[in-house]
Amino acid sequence: MTTLLDVKGLVKSYSGVHAVRDVSFAVRPGEILALIGPNGAGKSTCFNMLNGQIRPDAGSIKLAGEEVVGLPPRTVWRRGVGRTFQITATFSSMTVRENVQVALLSFHRRLWSLFGYAGKSYLDEANELLTLVGMQEQAERPCGELAYGDLKRLELAVALANQPRLLLMDEPTAGMAPKERVELMRLTAGIARRKDIGVLFTEHDMDVVFEHADEVMVLNRGQLVARGTPQQVRSDPHVQAIYLGDGLLYDAKHRKETVQ
Amino acid sequence: MKLEVSDLNSFYGPAHILFDVGFAVGEGEVVAMLGRNGAGKSTTFRSVVGLVSRRAGSVIFEGEDVSRLPPYEIVRRGLGYVPEDRRIFTELSVEENFEVGRQKARPGVAEWTPDRIYKLFPNLGEMRKRLGGDMSGGEQQMLSIGRTLMGNPSLVLLDEPSEGLAPKIVEQMADAILAMKREGLSIIISEQNLHFAKLICDRAYIIEKGRIRFSGTIDELEAHPEIRDAYLAV
Amino acid sequence: MELILVQALSGLASAASLFLVASGLSIIFGVTRIVNFAHGAFYMLGAYVAFTLTDRFSGALGFWGGLVAASLIVALLGALMEMVLLRRIYHAPELFQLLATFGVTLMVQDIVVLIWGADDLMGPRAPGFTGAFSLFGRLVPTYDLLLIVLGPAVLGALWLLFHRTRWGVLVRAATQDRDMVACLGVNQKWLFTSVFALGVFLAALGGALQIPRTTVTHYMDLSIIVEVFVVVVIGGLGSVTGAFIAAVLVSELNALGILVLPKISLIAVFLVMAVVLVVRPYGLLGKAERGVRASAGISFRPWKPMSQWERIGAAVLVASAALLPLFAGNYLLSVGSEILVFVLFAASLHFMMTVGGLASFGHAAFFGLGAYGAAFAVKFLGAPMEVALLVGPLFGLIGAVVSGWFCVRLSGVYFAMLTLAFAQIIWSIAFQWVEVTGGDNGILGIWPSAWASSPRGFFWLTLGVSVVGVALLRMLVFSPYGFGLRATRDNTLRSDAIGIDRKSVQWAALLVAGTFAGVAGALFAFLKGSVFPESLAIPISVDGLVMVLLGGIETVSGAVVGAIVYKALAIWLMSQTDLSKLVLGAIIVLLVVAAPKGIVGFIEDWRHRRPPAPNGTGPEAAGKSGTVGIAKMEAAE
Fold first, then answer.
1. Who wins on pLDDT, B108 or C597?
2. Which of C169, C188, C618 sits opposite B72 (nearest CB)?
3. Of residues C169, C180, C636, nearest to B96 (C-beta)
4. So what's the ipTM on this one?
């Protein structure tokens, strides 16, 4: 089995406090991997190290065999790491399509062209991406007036503009209704499988995690304490003690399985 | 009735957000306002405490119409509000956060002091001098609730108390809310998580696209999964 | 060595007033998020009122009573301004707030001259501190010692106030989240007013304490505000301790710098500021701004290139302007040329402000550099106008390269303050370096080539250059680069995440704006036939800002309209009244309060008032599906 992302011995501490200690894991192409854990467990620090926003104290991050530690976020992005944010980050003064076009212009290194109308560049590619996430009908709308779920889908299209091999999604379904959550995750999973993109996401909604992740990793106090299928992680007594609790808060269906 | 809201209409700029919203909270009751994200839950709460400038309708709190008052006057009358994103003062210590929330005691009711709040949330008692910004999400939620209690409210609006918290912490939060109920407080929470609401609430409203779509007990809601599916889409 | 020690003591004494004013500015900014440009005006008023109370009405309160009473009176004025003006604009973009307080500054300048006259005033000396003591054979005024003690004493008092009183805790809470404080039952209106009054009190006290040391002048407001901006940028906005450290640092640099480099002590301060900003972008003790507010120029109506009809309309307008010399007289043509120069200047500022979201308060720097560049080319190289018109923009470009390198490390208010400081430094160089710039006397004899020397010829020249300039800027807005620039403005997080190098893109925007402003400045030099330091001064920067705002911050080229309307109005006003600053200030204040979207923004709003799209989330759509929902629900029951 090939490895897309290979993380080894990642360490980061802030003024003596260990935020992340000795985290190692791997992501395969087309795999959907969830990273869960209590607040402050180091999930965000991990994410920020993966896309180059924070430089780890030690450890290596190899993307398709190439080291990316020490590269700025821009370069990591060019190597094929897309990212979505917990709170949607889009360009509110532009139309939906223009949002995607900017990302495409940047990807094709055309941002320093001073002439020509950017609104006509990469039309086909932009439309293709918008069709992929089901936003083609709304291409001309100002991004500022989109519904929240649509903003999330637009963000996904923007994140796909650099033809990523790895997608980092920080709480992708936060603030969404349950039905929208399922739709967004299905959409993501479908795209990931078809294009062989590895997906790493953090999430607090256990229904989303257990339903959509191939495997789940649990981070606690900066350390990986478990990795396995949703089934395995759910029934892990240690994980229940530190994070999941008594299981009152996610769907009864899962709870019954756990009891059995 | 502790709080009676009727014909509430709210606007953000030209956008009409709430349509004739009405609900009520009885003395000592815990009520849930359920709905999807963007359904209007937070706007409803914000309108009740006067944070939405363009609103119309009546908000009767303890027999007095407070709909024309500015937020601080409403809060001083005993209507406490815990916002959805907690909004604790990260640069202030736990004790100082409480000081900001402190208001005069209401006659005949035991005054909330930091010590009483530490009994409710023992975690906080161990970190009185810690800055709000150095606390975990769950601790911040506790601090935010404690800070509102320092204003000696008789009714508390809790906006999405479980959002973004680990399931284990959410269970602790449920215990704390039930403890507050035992202290005689009336509480209304907004929630997307039906499981959580079931743990603590007596009655529930469902709001969708700015209108109240359902009102009834939790048991009635359980008995009608089609309503749940239509508006909550679990 | 002795000299150094004595100078150091004098520096410490100067630091006291600087600290008072800076801490006041910092405290006000902390809670209200408003950078109170009028702070210098309050400092000046403190000095003037203290002068009146101690000199004209001495005896009633005594000297010290007079100082305190003066500060209290000014604090009361400040509270009044907060209640009447600022309360209306707390939710406006910060740029508008800065501009409104600047309008007040302009008004105060004229009012002060009206009341106290234009002459410098010499206040009384402080009783009990009139003497001096000898240190290494040099005299040090005892009053300086008092000031040296006063600084740390005020710092300590402020610390106690903010950490040991309920009011202080509330203020610190409001500094972080003022709306939440209101949700906890605190009347934030009065909290804001009291904070503003305290800040103004500190500024006025700073001014009042100066009267035994220096003369009271009607231009002391601008000189202190620039120094104060430098202090808070170095110390960190919102940090009182930072203000203290930075005030000492800046005052010592000034005091000791004079010994080493008498002419360019200001540059030493600027260099220190630059180093601090590079190492700590938010100042020594400052913190990154939380939840950075939307910068100027976020439009929710996506921009589109001109339609065919709009192009034709613009061409017709330009053509009719070109016909003007056929029937207009010389005076009208030179007014027309001046307006056109400012059209280009305003358009260049508009580009960086609305497309780039970079609000500059020192755009005059590039305008003036362009003017001086052209003048130098003529004077030192004997270059003809055609060459000089290229040298000017080159100067603007170089200035933008230097200042941009520092500025793009900052954003929002910090950016605006740094641009202002930069412009003031260029101004003081032009003012002081008499050998090269002629100082106050300026450079004369900058005349156009023969073909453009008639008012008619020069009008056509400026028309041609301005039209091409505005067209190029507009083209840039819609180019891939323009899209990238807007992306950095709309959302830094996202633009970073799609590989856009924010600093470089914004720096380039500054270069573009600086170059075009330089073109305008060079034209201006030939229009007037001379160059003076005024072309670099704050009023020019503010003219540009007002033109942009008047035109409309959310528009693509609103500045063109803003410049025409404003410049015509200003020229007419100048001919009508001596109190032009008072009127101008009032217009700015009114504009900010009444028409924040500007002329073109207003017209566009009106043009786009149409029903929402059928699949919109507008009220109608929500209403329709709502009805369906009710039906479903009844069925369910």
1. B108
2. C188
3. C169
4. 0.92
